[in-house]
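Cross-check.
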Amino acid sequence: MNIHWDDMRVFLAVARDESLSAAGKRLRIDPATVGRRISRLEESYDAPLFLKSPTGYALTDMGQRLMTHAARVEQSMQMAQEDLSGQAGGLAGQIRIGAPDGAANFLLPQVCAQIAKDNPELEIQIVALPRLINLSKREADFVVAVSPPTAGRLMVQKIADYHLSLAASDSYLNSGPALSSTDDLQNHRIVGYIPDMIFDKELDYISEIGLEKPDLSSNSVSVQVNWIRQGGGVGIVHDFSLPFYPEVKKVLEKDVSLTRSFYLVRHEDDKRLERLNRFAKALCEGLKQEVTRLEALA
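Predicted model, tokenized:
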């Protein structure tokens, strides 16, 4: 049986994307070619590797077994590439980070800009999605999460604590009802997350401070803070975002103050990849320093 690494790459892409077209985009080859490669593999093993349906491609038992071995081969190839390319100096290649949009908007751009400046051959991608990122499907190399995952073959490293406060714009405070205690919040418009789109319990700030569903809501942190900035109401904001919006001020600081943590999550298979280890160290150090710097300005 002759199995080529290129066919394994195609197999891994289809297994992770569950689609010929998505795998083709990932690999930059025609979906029809992807389909032919998969058919060739299945003929080689004399067994189906995927169950095809209108909703996509799902691994069979044989496909699951092959996935384990293919992922190991992929890691070995990546380690060989690192070794032979002499990446003892600067980092190179593409690295993708998935993050909630609070971190993606207010922290990662400046931290990653500095890492990229120090490593000119490095391509960094930031995926800002208000949902969990699937590392097993290789949607990203790293995930910045607000709670540590409890399942899966993952490595978790705490990055830093961060703080959130209740805030409103000067224009809203000057024209709105009195706001001297949490009881007064019942008389104010509240800005927050769309309740049924909260993808992590750590983001349910409104319930934590004893309020019901918000009057103005979005699944995006940047939309929420811009709503507050435009005088839409009162809401919970990251302290590290406040230096970007001088017209937004903390309110009821003695009564409302929340603490959360960021975690860096990686797939366990990547722990021997020195390139990713070095990037993880730079990213964690940079994020911790930036949270501290911005919160001091808030």
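The two ends are 63 Å apart (CA to CA). The longest strand covers residues 154-169. Passed to J.P. for a second look.
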